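Title: Comparing notes on inverse folding

I've been comparing how different people in this forum approach sequence design from structure. To keep things fair, I'm posting one structure and asking everyone to reply with a full sequence. Here's the target:
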């Protein structure tokens, strides 16, 4: 049997107002302001709990990060022959790439030294199986990412003596990346080693076309400063006449950035459709051929702009004529796809700027 929660007949006579009815709000408890203890339980205690959880998480993350960056831990994993080697290699590559999260890693001289020692051992072992070659390739790449030169000597060794061409090429590229990092420091730094210049000159005169092409790119980085070694500039000038197109084009771009007029002939060639077709013909797929063609044209425009800006008092009609022919015959380059409009726009802009200057 149901009944009302409050029976008016059961109330004391003095509690019933005149008229015999009770208002609903008279049945509620009185409203009182919350006291300090209630507020403490409602807000402060949960906040303290959340703060504690965050601090524990930060502590765990910090400890884990320190473990990830421990040189001995990293090198031990890379020395192993199981799958953990490549997992650690991926982690190390990711940490070097995310510099904001691991700001001290590229300055870790202990880690760079131990990685260099491992690479040195692997070069001497001269393993030709895929795992050994991939490890040397990887070590060359990561040593180029550091901001310390502890890996310089072994990179020079890998570039000149490794049994695998791809490892040698990656070592040359790593030298260029390392040199660029030092050049970008404030104040600019400079890589120094008693065998550096001699090794680069030796590589610039290799029989292997791909090695010469790679070192032409690297020499462009090593000769960025006004105080660069003149013998390296001389090697670049020789490479600008190299029989291999990619070596010529890389050398021309490097010389053009210095305003060196020895680059003009090769830069003009980079705007020639037939010459560019020969250069891209080695690529295994049409997509890669198109990408390389566009890269050559982009580099040609950058080189032409540098030559025109750094030599404002010298007329270079062969260069401007080559740019003009490229713009006028762009529709003939469709065998590898349309020329990207930004490249054509830059070419037109160069012609306009040069015309205005004259």
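Reply #1:
Here's my take.
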């Amino acid at each position: 049997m149901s009944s009302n929660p409050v029976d008016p007949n059961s109330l004391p006579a003095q509690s019933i107002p005149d008229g015999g009815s009770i208002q609903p709000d008279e049945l509620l408890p009185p409203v009182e302001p919350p006291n300090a203890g209630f507020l403490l339980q409602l807000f402060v205690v949960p906040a303290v709990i959340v703060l504690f959880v965050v601090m524990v998480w930060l502590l765990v993350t910090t400890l884990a990060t320190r473990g990830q960056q421990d040189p001995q831990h990293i090198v031990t994993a890379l020395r192993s022959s199981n799958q953990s080697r490549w997992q650690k290699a991926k982690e190390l590559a990711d940490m070097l790439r995310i510099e904001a999260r691991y700001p001290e890693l590229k300055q870790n001289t202990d880690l760079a030294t131990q990685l260099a020692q491992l690479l040195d051992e692997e070069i001497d072992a001269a393993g030709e199986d895929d795992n050994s070659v991939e490890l040397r390739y990887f070590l060359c790449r990561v040593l180029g990412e550091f901001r310390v030169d502890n890996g310089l000597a072994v990179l020079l060794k890998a570039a000149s003596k490794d049994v695998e061409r791809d490892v040698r090429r990656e070592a040359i590229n790593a030298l260029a990346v390392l040199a660029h990092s030092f050049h970008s420091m404030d104040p600019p730094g400079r890589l120094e080693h008693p065998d550096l210049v001699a090794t680069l000159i030796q590589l610039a005169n290799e029989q292997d076309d791909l090695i010469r092409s790679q070192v032409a790119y690297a020499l462009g980085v090593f000769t960025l400063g006004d105080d660069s070694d003149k013998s390296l500039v001389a090697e670049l000038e020789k490479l600008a006449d190299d029989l291999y197109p990619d070596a010529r084009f890389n050398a021309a771009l490097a010389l053009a950035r210095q305003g060196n007029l020895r680059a003009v002939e090769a830069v003009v060639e980079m705007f020639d459709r037939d010459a560019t077709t020969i250069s891209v013909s080695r690529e295994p797929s049409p997509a890669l051929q198109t990408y390389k063609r566009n890269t050559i044209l982009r580099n040609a425009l950058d080189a032409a702009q540098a030559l025109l800006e750094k030599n404002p008092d010298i007329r270079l009609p062969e260069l401007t004529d080559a740019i003009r022919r490229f713009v006028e015959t762009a529709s003939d380059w469709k065998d590898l796809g349309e020329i990207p409009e930004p490249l054509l726009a830059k070419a037109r802009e160069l012609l306009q700027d040069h015309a205005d200057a004259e």
